[in-house]
């Protein structure tokens, strides 16, 4: 292991293993690479210099940040879309069961699409609200 002198300490604590120091700094930073770390004996702050990252790492880091910002919105959109589509399907099946399969399809084919997009998902909502004793 390579020996380094990271601070102003003297005596037996003057030289430390590079790998041991890096592990200790990692433990102190706890995943936050911008956190400041100082020597516990002499209080000298360690200056940590990272190697230059190539363009591939920069692009991957940028993609990671974009994905981490977009994922909550995408997950919420998928969840809302799934609930909406389930309600539309349940409403359509309910219409076909109430008036009959063929007649229900005829009614929905002749209806205004905007009315179907708004009306069909309200059917399960109203059925659930109808079960509540007000």
UniProtKB/TrEMBL annotation:
Q: Where in the cell is it found?
A: Membrane
Q: Which GO terms describe its cellular component?
A: membrane
Q: What residues does the RING-CH-type domain cover?
A: 1-49
Major location category of this protein: membrane
Q: Which sequence ranges are marked TM in the entry?
A: 73-93, 113-132
* Top-rank taxon: Eukaryota
Its placement in the membrane is given as: Multi-pass membrane protein
Q: What is this protein called?
A: E3 ubiquitin-protein ligase MARCHF5
Q: Which Pfam families does this entry report, sorted A to Z?
A: RINGv
